Input
Amino acid sequence: MPFEFAEKTLLFVSTPLYLLIIGGEIIISHWRLKKYYSFKDTLVNIYLSVLNAGVDLLFRAIYLFIILQWFFNFRVIHFTPGTWMYWLLLFVAEDFVFYFEHRVDHYCRFFWAVHVTHHSSEKFNLTTGFRSSVLQPLYRFIYFIPLAIAGFNPEHIVFMYSLTQIYGILVHTRYIAKMPRWFEFVFVSPSHHRVHHASNILYLDKNMGMCLIIWDKFFGSFQEEVPAEPVKFGLTKPIENPHHPVKIIFHEWHNLVQDLKKKTTLFNKLKYLFMPPGWSHDGTSKTARQLREEHYFPDT
Output
């Protein structure tokens, strides 16, 4: 199937699906007075999604047909495309590299400054999945390079990413409490992803998989949703004017620049760029790990 036709087919199928389930969730949440949606918040989600798509479209010809294709020429395995095994392997491999991209986005402040936009809403609903990190398409392809070298066609890699993103959007809901136990053992569930969007100290930087939760369980970033610890959505430090079209994208870059202006060593300035969010040379702010240790193990 030609790449452009496959992408258009995916868009043709997913768009009415989104409209149907989002419309249903909006109606139910208002009918039950849950207030899971707000007009401004939803508008910001749409705005960020459109910007992200625009950046991706402008840059796609470079990363897809030049960079990834160049690496694909040096592939170590010559797969037979179109077989179910090929697509299954690509799904697992793509989900694996996404996990590490997502983990870097959370553990390196430079990339967190891009990704933080996705976590900035204090609402959590299906449109939150469209609250995209606008500048992410400028570097996301780097994580696809090993897949191209392995032997996966670059067009298939991008298509699989688009396909798994559909699932990634559908888990942004508060209306599914728990999935069956066997399901949550393997796959990311809405409960898992609510944890990921929480600002509670217990939940920070947890559950980073797109479709498969097994990576989090294997690499130690898994956290169950705890009934005694209700999820509080948003950031640990809410941003001012969260609906501002520019600040919503660049507020963390502003904070990063302010930290880089501090009077300290060059090595510490580099740490402000590449250490986890919250790191500070003088202890005025703390990382998620430091906050957990301080909160749960104060005497150690």
